Amino acid sequence: MNTTTPSTGRWGRVVTTLVALLMVSSVAIGAGAGAAAAAADDPTQRSLQDDDSTENQTLDAADDIYVRANGDAVLYYEDDGETDSEQLSNAEYGLSVGQGIFYGLVVSDLEETPNATGSASAVLEPGALTGEGELTADRPEAIQELSLTVDGVRNQQRNRFDAEGRVAVATRSAPSLELVESAETSLQATVAPDSFDASGSLNARTATQLGQPMELSAELTEGTDTYTLQAAQSQQVREFAREQWETRERARQTIEQRYASVAESLGGSATVTLNAYSFTNTSQRGVYQLDVDYTVEYQGIDDGIERQAAAVLANSEDFDLSREEASAIAANVTDLTIERVAADYRMQSQSVEGSFDIQLENYNDALLAGLDTLAAYSPPDQEVPVQSGQIEDIRARIEAQQAADLTRTYSFSASHALPSQSQAVIEFQAQSRTENWQAYVSELESRDIEITGLEYSLAADTDGDQVVANGSFSIEQEDLVDSTVDQFLNATEGETDEDLEQTRSFVRAFREAGFQKARTDISVTEGNVTFEAGAKFEDMAAFRDALKQAGRIDLTITDVVGRTNESGSLNQYVYVEGAVSADASEEDVRALSVVDEDTTVHMPGTYNRSFPEMETERAYTYLGLEPPTPTPAAGDGGDGTSSDGQPGFGAVAALVALVAAALLARRTD
To answer: How far apart are CA 414 and CA 429, in angstroms?
Structure first.
């Protein structure tokens, strides 16, 4: 039975994580490139890469500032060349706030041959997240063979999962595997709207002695206001426990003491009947053989459970329930019917066998009673309350399962064998299937609940001395990104923590910026690592405004460009709109937070140079988007007289990382 919700379900958390990772990786272009070239030895060169969310820091002081006639400025951060920049063979990145687009590329050389090579890519859109990757790695010495396949799909038409694998392990690397000569286990479960059936078995043969033989079996069934336990045990008893079992009556009393206390604590009673009994000496002094078969009949258990549960719920300050409401919840709990719960276990000197079988009916009412209890729960101030919308969403899903008669089946099997003294082989298979899935989807849609489409696959195999793996996934849901952002805002609504409120303002800015698309690619070869990323928003000014309101920046940054020069050093250009007034003096410029005594100030008309531009068309092409129609613009005016800054990176990207990282930390705990 699936009781996950868009707010709290595991895939909601996965989506949140991937959204965050994609955003962080996108802005990591600038941070990674800067760190590779400068941050290790000279903190003053980190500029935009630094992001200390615990302080209201502004940008670092620039090496140079070029002031334009209209008061705009370009901040220049130069790599001093003292650090090891040979590893960074190429880096370029930029973000245009006006166009709302980011792009970056970093290529780093590797000093040593990596243990693994491969590539991965991910694309995030408002309603979908897709990714794929491949990996080739050295085969671990312990692994002689490996074969693994996993695939699953959940959409409007079907919901299934399949996995199987085989691994051959060298026992010299894992000698503990030799302790088990053979083993097999299996599990099966069927979950229907009002019933739950599960069974399983285990058998194993060991290479070492396990101990004295033992057999245990038990079966619990439910009747009208009664529960009956049928049990048997065959085991050896030591001298210290002899008095508990040495006569038939003492054995009955021992069993009664063990089980009657449970019934009495619930206001019921228990009657013990010995069906068979044997207590004999063995060839070993002080050791006896006990064989006993008995029946325990419980009465009044349900009434006791109802009374106690109702009293606890009604009298607790943590639950807002009347006596009648509490009694109704307790009655629903006891509506659960135990058709059969059975288990048996047998151990011989070098073997173990066991099995279990569970058959429950009417568990649905008990589950709904749990939701009613959760809805009435008033947590202490230090606890985050469960949102009522989440509870109602779970309730709606349960009702949809009932209406559609949704049935899920699960199976798992595994085996262990020693085909030779040098090798152990482990194999497994698992799968899940659903019946009436399309009817269930229709019932959900009638309750305004959308199914999140999911498809994934993974394959891994050994190929000589290497392990080769590849995989892919796709997640589709209308307004996937917006719902993830709303999830965070709803979950943190009403909290008064100052840092959290600042994070909420950044997340709101993320939503207001109008996310359109993001993409990330990374590849590792024997010679280098290539990292490429891009993102597009409708209006990135929302990020900048949030940063200014939080005191993180005190300038209106429009663009930034970062790239390596001919010597391999990384330089950054930060474009600031209205840094000073049009008639500002050098003293006014030096009053800026990004200017200190070491900053060289270039006033309008005192310099003649151009500044790099972001290749926005390349960014649009990388993202697979149509670039906007260009409009005529004034030239750069190398003498410092032009007005418009050029596209580039900027502190806005640092905000995206901050928002994403906060979201990731908040929702993956």
So the answer is: 6
